[in-house]
Every structure is written in C-alpha cells, then in structure tokens.
Design goal:
Layout (H helix, E strand, L loop, with lengths): L2 H7 L3 H4 L12 E4 L5 E4 L1 H10 L4 E2 L6 H4 L14 E4 L3 H13 L4 E4 L15 E4 L6 E4 L4 E4 L5 H9 L3 E2 L10 H7 L6 H4 L6 E7 L5 E5 L4 H7 L8 E8 L1 E2 L3 E10 L3 H12 L6 E9 L6 E8 L3 H7 L1 H5 L5 E8 H5 L11 E9 L4 H9 L7 E9 L21 E9 L5 H15 L17 H7 L4 H11 L16
Parallel strand pairs: 4-6, 5-6
Antiparallel strand pairs: 1-2, 3-4, 7-8, 8-12, 9-13, 10-11, 10-12, 14-16, 14-17, 15-16, 15-19, 18-20, 19-20
Helix pairs in contact: 10-14
Length: 491
C-alpha cells in the first residue's frame, strides 16, 4: 500500500463526487445474489455507489464495460456481470464491499484477471476490480517489496531487479501477483527460496464484514496462516509485502529440445538427473505440440549459483541424446521470466489439469508419452515442474499450503483460438488426465482449480482442512468470498 494512496482515498466521497462514473445512474438494473436469486439495484443506489468511488463504476451500458469484463482465459469472456467497481484505492474497495454485502450480491474479485477457471469474473454479480491498484514499492535496504493487488508479476520482477533482487514469482509475467500468492505461489526460485507465500511478510486485508486488518506473524497470525495457500477465502488483500533476495541480474539459462520420438528417453533421463539437484538448480521438462506441427520434448530451466559451477553440474545434460536445439548460457532474469508469455496470450481459450507427485513411476512416463497428442488447431503442453529444496523444508501445517512433500507438479494444458473447438479440447484433456491422476498424491495446486468437485477441493487441503473451516467460520461465515478454491463455512 502506498501511504499517499491511503490518505487520498480516505478523503472520501467529497473528492470522488467530481469524477464521472460513465452512465452508472442510467437506470435500475437486476443483479444476482449469493443465494442465486435476482435483486433490483435502483438508480439512486447505483448513483450513491458511483459517487463514493474515486475509480469508475461500470454498468452494461457504460463505455469500457466490455473491456473490463474480459479476462485472460477467453473461455469465460461470455460472462456479463451486473456491475464492475474499478477501485483506485482502499477506500473504494471498502465501499464496494459494503455495497455488495448490503445487497447480498454475488461477488468476484479481480486483480490480474489471470484465473484459468474464470473466478475473477461472474455472471450477473458484482466484480470488485482492483486492477487499477498497481503500485510497486521496493525497499532495497530492507530487501522487501510492497505491491498492490492489481500488480502483475512482470512489474514486480522489473522493479525488484532494478536493485538486483527478486522473490518467487511465477513463470508467466502477466499473471497477477495477488492470485498467485494466495494459492501458494509456484516459480523458478521456489527450490532456492521457497514458494511465494514463504516469502510473504505481511498483508493488508479487508474482511467481508468491512474491517481493515494487518496480517503477519505478529498481527492476526491466524489470518496470516490462512492467506498463505487458502486461495482468497478469508479476505480481500489490498497490499502484499514480500521478502526479496539477491538474484541476477544474469542467471544461467538451460534449454534443450529433442524430437518427440525420444520423449520417453528424455523424461527418464530428466527424472534421474534431477534427483540430486541442488537448490540453485531449477530444471523442468515437458512435451509440446504446437498447432499442426510434430512437437518436441524439452528440458529447460535455470541455475542461480556460480556460472562455472553450473556448467559443471549441467555437463551430463550436454552429453545426453541428440537435441535439435541446445543452449546453456547467461540470460537476464527479467527476460527469462517473460519467456512463456508468447504462449499464453490474452483472449485465447485455455483448459488445464494438474496434480502433485511425491514419486514418479514408470507407468506415469509411459502414459504421459503414449497418450500425448495434438491437433492442427490446438497447442498441447505437458509441463513437469520440480519441487523439493526450500519448499520441502517448511512444515506441512506451517501454512495453509500443505503439500510440502511434493517432488513434482505435472500439468497438462491446451490452448486454442476457435471457441467451437472448446468441448472437444476440454474432453481430450480430461481423458488424458484420467490416466495420470491415479499416480498423484491426491493433491493439486489450488490456482488450477477448474472443475473439481467440492469434495476434491476439501480433500486437497489435507490435514489443514479443519483449521481452514474454523478460520472461514470466523472471517467469512456467509461465504461472501466463494469464487475461489472454496472452503465452505459450517456456521
């Protein structure tokens, strides 16, 4: 949170009244409630809300509404919320929460808008859009960064790398920091410095009943515990404070591509090679079939330590197989962090399944390779991400994220541009995942919740589930925050 923003926001409606809110008072509108019923929001009520915001209130008749309701995954861009409150600061968020609570509205929270499951948009409800809140402040002396909920990972990386610092921050730079963090936070630095939540120092939170709280190891410790992996179930975070570490600006890039016909040999080699990898080495593997092309197997990642030592460690990789392409060499960390962006364009259609593995059996590799297939219109990806290292040295009950015994995450995903192909591509992914799911530990990354049932979500929180339910009962007994990997209250 920027101090100036907070003070300015607190001036209230007197200053905000001079800002137009694009036809927000045009007419009464219908909206969906938490109970799935319809309610009428009157012209006067909408005007009062619009006048209270420094940002804009957008209705279906407003200029900018259609753009505001679009998110990264085009699968969900047919949803039409009744209203979008574009918040410019904390006061706007507080006012939007109060309005939604007063009218019992269905609410979606939008930060970066990168939810693969479409949870950052809703049909007929209210979107509390915090994407305009995109301030980043880095303290190079304390090695910390404080970011607002609309910040994208690329902005965090760029601001931190100006001082040669970084924290664990995903693998696609236009992902939102807020959603990534609340689900746990997977990234290239996780083996060396832990998950994003392991580097979270504090958070400023607006609770569903309208309180503004600080959560940390010293303040509201129970809430701080739940925010770290609880998937946004307990409050709306308006500021995240992260611990930063010396990283880069150059790291050692590792990139090898092999013919798809060598896929089994590549994956078998990868798992053997990665078994004793040091924390400084983050190496993943995968299978990729671009639309209409033959596809390839890959081993890629980076080394964060001394380059000479990295070259020595990677020598077995240099000697393996007959790669179509190979590279081990320096790269700017910021460039590495944005390398996947071009394959994750906004507005395309995406579907994914993922799971955690504590061990990899031969049958996993066999099924993964033999069932892998592409089409002329779909990009198909199987991605293996290494865990262990610093992630596994945190106790399972230390944070809401309990999967500390995970050694690998395997993700299968598809991306396509033609909406008419959605049903077939989604079904292919589901069928493919059925062959891999029995070998998982039973867990998955909550940021990849797409169509899992409630029982699956509950079981995914494992031994922390009862504690999370108690926390939900305390901070959100009405399940106001339900568009997430939801923990249902029992009160």
């Amino acid at each position: 949170m920027k101090r100036r923003d907070f003070v300015t926001s607190a001036l209230g409606a007197a200053a905000a009244a001079s800002v137009p809110y694009t036809k927000a008072s045009a007419s009464d509108i219908s909206a969906n409630t938490l109970k799935g019923e319809s309610t009428v929001l009157t012209k006067a009520e909408l005007k009062e809300l619009g006048d209270s915001l420094r940002g804009k209130l957008l209705l279906p008749s407003s200029d900018g509404y259609d753009q505001a309701r679009k998110i990264w995954n085009g699968m969900w861009n047919d949803k039409r919320p009744a209203l979008v409150a574009r918040c410019s600061g904390i006061k706007d968020v507080l006012n939007a929460v109060e309005f939604a609570r007063t009218h019992d509205l269905l609410v979606a929270l939008r930060g970066g808008g990168h939810s693969i499951s479409g949870k950052s948009i809703c049909e007929g409800g209210m979107v509390i859009d915090m994407s305009p809140m995109d301030g980043v402040h880095v303290d190079p002396f304390a090695k910390t960064a404080r970011v607002e909920p609309g910040v994208l990972l690329g902005a965090l990386d760029q601001a931190s790398q100006h001082f040669g610092l970084a924290t664990t921050a995903g693998v696609v730079s236009h992902t939102g920091a807020a959603g990534l963090t609340l689900g746990g936070g997977i990234g290239r630095l996780q083996r060396k410095h832990g998950l994003t939540i392991d580097n979270l120092i504090s958070a400023d939170v607006i609770t569903p009943d309208g309180r503004f709280l600080r959560a940390s190891q010293e303040d509201n410790e129970d809430l701080f515990w739940g925010l770290r992996g609880g998937g946004g179930n307990f409050g709306i975070v308006t500021s995240f404070e992260y611990q930063l570490h010396k990283v880069g600006p150059k790291v050692l890039n590792v990139s090898f591509m092999y013919p798809i016909s060598d896929a089994k040999d590549v994956l078998n080699f990868y798992f053997d090679f990665n078994m004793n990898a040091p924390d400084d080495l983050y190496i993943g593997a995968g299978l990729v079939i671009p639309p209409g092309e033959p596809g390839f197997a890959m081993i890629s990642g980076c080394y964060f330590g001394d380059f000479e030592e990295g070259e020595r460690l990677l020598e077995p990789l240099r000697k393996f197989g007959k790669p179509m392409f190979s590279n081990i060499g320096p790269i700017d960390y910021v460039d590495l962090q944005s390398r996947n962006d071009r394959n994750n364009e906004h507005g395309h259609y995406y579907y994914a399944k993922s799971g955690f593995f504590t061990d990899i059996e031969t049958a996993v590799i066999d099924n993964a390779v033999e069932r892998f297939a592409g089409t002329s219109s779909r990009r198909t990806l199987l991605l293996i991400s290494p865990f262990g290292g610093a992630v596994g040295r945190v106790a399972e009950d230390a944070t809401a994220f309990s999967h500390r015994d995970t050694q690998y995450q395997i993700e299968i995903s598809s991306g396509w541009e033609n909406a008419a192909l959605s049903d077939g591509n989604v079904q292919w992914c589901r069928n493919y995942w059925e062959a891999l799911d029995p070998f998982t530990s039973g867990g998955f990354y909550v940021n990849f919740v797409v169509d899992q049932g409630q029982q699956q979500v509950n079981e995914n929180y494992r031994g922390n589930f009862d504690r999370l339910v108690a926390l939900k009962n305390k901070y959100d007994p009405t399940n106001f925050l339900r568009l997430n990997a939801n923990i249902e209250p029992t009160v």
